[in-house]
Structures are given as structure tokens and as C-alpha cells.
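Researcher: Please predict.
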Amino acid sequence: MEKLLGRARWFDHPNAVQAGPLLRQWLADPGSMTFKLRARCDELRVQRLRQRPGNALQDECRLLGLTPREAVEERDVILHCDGHPVLFGHTVTPLASAAAWPFFRRLGNRPLGGSLFSDPLVTRAPIQFARLHAGHPLVRRVRQALDLHSQPPLQPLYARRSLFRRHGSVMLVTDVFLPALSTLMALNM
């Protein structure tokens, strides 16, 4: 049923998404994915797909404490390591919270992780985990961004998300692991 509706079921433990040990280790890593990727490639590039006011996804509204009609600022990016797309990043914050995240609108093609993890005022809630199927809105965005419309649907993509807080305001950051990430995960560092 979740596959048909395009919804994800989020879990509090990475074992619940039935991923292999290495993938679970990456999903559960409490650090910045940006820093982890930088350590494994010569060039990390951020491709900003969009950043604009919009509406949060249904499961995001609940977590952010919003109604579906309340506006958010959303940002979608793809992180490329040495030219390979390895991570789709999706970030939402209520428009009413914009003042608490002054760096967010000025990021451009820079990664969000550097700003979040270097700010001592930012706290992070526990990570949640999911497998996103072809009908999920974020998977559809990945397919569109990577121009995969003529190819068969992607296998379920693993994702993690965290709620960050700063000055009483919230920001939800979701990382969707793309297939090319498996090559980087195999590198021993």
C-alpha cells in the first residue's frame, strides 16, 4: 500500500529498513554526510535543483508541526562526488522560521552540512530511516533530476532524515542515498 501511495514509513532504527551492515553504518552515522563524502572524493559538487517556497510532504508536516497548507522554504540538491551523483538532499523549514536560519537562503551551490554542523546553536534530533519506493515524491524528483524517465524504476532508495533546531525553529533535512554511493561506501577510510 505504501508503494502505491508514494508514502514512506520512517523508523527510529536503521535495522528496520533491511539494509546491509555497511549501508546501515552509513545511514546511522551521526555526523555530516557532506564531511563524510568530502573525505572520499577529490571533488564534491553541489547541484542545486530548486530552492523556493512550497509545501511540505505529508509526513514532513506532522514532524514539523505544520498543516499541509502552511508554507515552507524547500531546497533540493544532488551531491556529486568526482562527477557521480551520490546523494539527493531535501531540506524544508517553515517560512515563519526563516529568520532562525540566516545562512539557508544564501547557500547557493554550497552544501548545507558545513553550516549546520559548525553552528553551536544547532541541535539535532535522532535520525529516522526509510526505504523510498518509486511512487514517493522524493524518488520522483530524483528520477526527474537525473533524467531517468526512459529507464525502469529505481530499486527502493534508502533515506535518513533529522530534525534540526536553532532558536526554537526547526529544519528537516533528508538524505536520499543514490546507487552510485555504494562505490564510495566500499572505500575503507
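Model: The first helix runs from residue 2 to 5.
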